[in-house]
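Reopening this ticket.

The earlier resolution said the output was attached, but the attachment link was broken on my side. Pasting everything inline this time so it's all in one place.
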Amino acid sequence: MLFRSPNPTADDVESFLRLYQETAERDGFVIRDRNYYRDALARLCPAGLATLYLARRGAEVVAAAVVLTFGVRAWYLWGATSAAGLDAHAMYRLQWEAMRTARDAGCDSYDMWGAPEDPDDEADPLRGVAWFKSGFGAKHVRWTGAWDFAPWPLAYRAWLEALPRVVGVIRRVRGEQTGHAVVTPG
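Inline output:
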């Protein structure tokens, strides 16, 4: 059973956060502090910019997704699936519902946001992500990317070298895992 929650309750948000933590631990990727997501949903949902989708099997939430909308575009921002949700392919149904809802709201595109640089590279840990998204007819689009303007090149270079080290220390102190999600089509 699917629930679309444009104004999620505290219980809805906690269900999403529990599932997101489970997904991050299982797939070995790093997520932000729980308050980051609580704050984002508390600001974006009441403004009509985001919707939390939950898929339940009985009383258990087995998949969740946050979809951001602005103008005629929707973005799949965050998603999570429990082991039971993976077995039931709950995210497929949830994504389909999110796409239909976005279309019915006037969106002309649904950005599934994030893919490997080369979706045909079998060694890329994000290949499974690309495989999942391609099942919906997604096409791989390469954007120019972000470019920084550095008025003080030496200070900027020091910043670029120091920042990853500082972030790494903070993550280790917090006990956060690092890595990429690996999904094998099967």
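Reporter confirms the inline version is readable. The radius of gyration is 18 Å. The longest strand covers residues 60-70.
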